[in-house]
């Protein structure tokens, strides 16, 4: 039962697997477990999309409450059980390398966080499966099951918070000499910004879950009035603007990938740092709690909510402009006549940024009062586009850093194909749900045409498009997972397949002198100068 | 000089503060309420205002910490310690059982709150035990620079306690989980479950005894899978509840029977 001083002693593979505190291993655990729960939540999404084909009744599920349970399970699963854990996994594996740290900070706590999240995720999924979704609980065992889902959710939040603390401490306190915070790679920077907002908002979500739990289980005298509106308590975490804070690391992924891909130095490093900070600020969504609305003054109609929505679109546009500028500067190094073709991660990361931009535009449209989109399926469109962007960004990130993390290569072509299928899927769902929103379809359609908002007949075909999109997203996710599994048995990878600019690609970061945000590029340029000087 | 970390978190502080004041005034706040924490006047939507103000306060705290410790820069730490080289960062600590046991303890505590007080107590005990073990491990790691000596010292202290306690706890958890499964099953179902589990345990033991060369990992894996399966089944059945029991006859000591019997 003792701890092993090192992981290379005579411990069995199982013992090593269960007891590991290695950042790379934990990162892979997060990625693997997040992938599995991603499949579960996407299947729930497909089933709900299938149900929407006939708004007049419950065809796939037994009742409106069942539909609601799966509908909310899809959203909770996509955000807290899939995308955020996948980003945390990528961060856990990559951020220590990027800052030149031998280990993640508080490695045992990092492991504890993963296992807590995993048990919480299992409990949450179990709760959902035994009729404990976040709908309107009936009596008896269903209330018990909903309570189980809520405590599972609390463990999930606790696990994510612990992992975030480890990550942030690594980035702040684990940097090598010369690597100031202003010079850290942008993926680590966006993790720092996003992590700050996760730390600021996830405890609020936990408090909401505790309130809902107390309402559900407490005696009448201590009820806060939320037992029939559990989803309303929690919904702010799965819609505009909070989803931006969850998806923020995708910006860092794109800005780490694109400059290297186009062989160009990022000219706007400082500006991108400021803009990501601003996107984090506008992504602080804990204030938008519609559950606590006083009659006649819904928070989503308040000025702060509208300003927030438009600010997010402007910041995303500025970020995309920075990325486009980098692409323009390095255009000569790619495309026709150049030696290099655009690598798959670059294509996917640019598409992910476009999806994020589209999501913020939908968010802004949604906030325009005359459009009356707040309660419509435009809400789902905005969530799907944002989390879809984060997922495509994570796909790009795993293709980019996968060789470094696993030490084995995989098919870039299959990765690109899976990513493109996912992008098409996200776009179909997003556009179809947005248009359905304009036609008056409610975000949750229930089991009757009236509950669906009595929308125009055109939504039927749009719902079919959304179903096709959901299926494509699922297919893309399956392709991504298959490609990841294929990597485990792939050929041994080159330690630096891309000619990277930042420390994670260095064989020994402690020997690299850091004088800018691109230390390996500095070395390369110095060598080139010396070589050309010697030649002349 | 202002550090990057300070700029980030102070920027968040300013933005959150501004947003709180803006939200306060535009949602019905009046007089100086939104800029005086409602000391004079009101703040409009108090939930939004309160959360934004809290975020601002936390961000300000982070900003002050960040500038006080110079962003945790390696150069600043070396300067503080008056050394030429930066102090070593976090070193790898090797494998540890405590994280996974702590998580299991937390999981049992949380699930126990919902399904059964005994599970809750088991979880609390597990968390407390892991807390002690984890603390002893950390203490022993600082005894000397020799890792094996430290580990040996820890084992001498803790092994006499760990083995019997773990044995009792493991058996207790299994018995409790199985009892939940049997109580939730129908009368015939309980018999079938008990028989199947018995056959699996006995068959597995026979298999292992006849193949002494089986790798340790395989045996451990099989035991782990079985243990987790029983625990999960116990949790699920505890959550769904016991089958209905009906008293047979009016006597207080009468035998329980089941509704499906039709008596």
Q: How would you characterize this protein structure?
A:
The complex is a heterodimer of chains A (536) and B (263). Helix content of chain A is 65%, strand content 0%. Chain A is mainly alpha-helical. In chain A, helix 3 (64-98) runs parallel beside helix 5 (141-173). Chain A is globular, with a radius of gyration of 23 Å. The N and C termini of chain A lie far apart (65 Å). The model of chain A has no long low-confidence stretch (mean pLDDT 89). Chain B contains eight helices and two strands. Chain B has helices at residues 4-26, 46-68, 74-81, 98-115, 117-141, 147-184, 187-210, 216-240; strands at 245-247, 256-258. Chain B has a two-stranded antiparallel ribbon. The N and C termini of chain B lie far apart (84 Å). Chain B is flat and about 75 Å long. At the A-B interface, helix 1, helix 4, helix 5, helix 6 and helix 10 of A face helix 1, helix 2, helix 3, helix 4 and helix 5 of B.
Average pLDDT figure of chain A: 89
Largest interface: A-B, 92 and 81 residues
Structural class of chain A: mainly alpha
Could you say which overall geometry of chain A the principal axes of the C-alpha atoms support?
A: globular
Strand proportion of chain B: under 5%
Distance N terminus to C terminus of chain B? 84 Å
Beta content of chain A: under 5%
Strand order of the largest sheet of chain B: 1-2
Order of helices and strands of chain A: HHHHHHHHHHHHHHHH
Structural class of chain B: mainly alpha
Tally of separate domains of chain A: 1
Assembly state (oligomeric): heterodimer
CATH topology of chain A: Cytochrome C Oxidase, Chain A
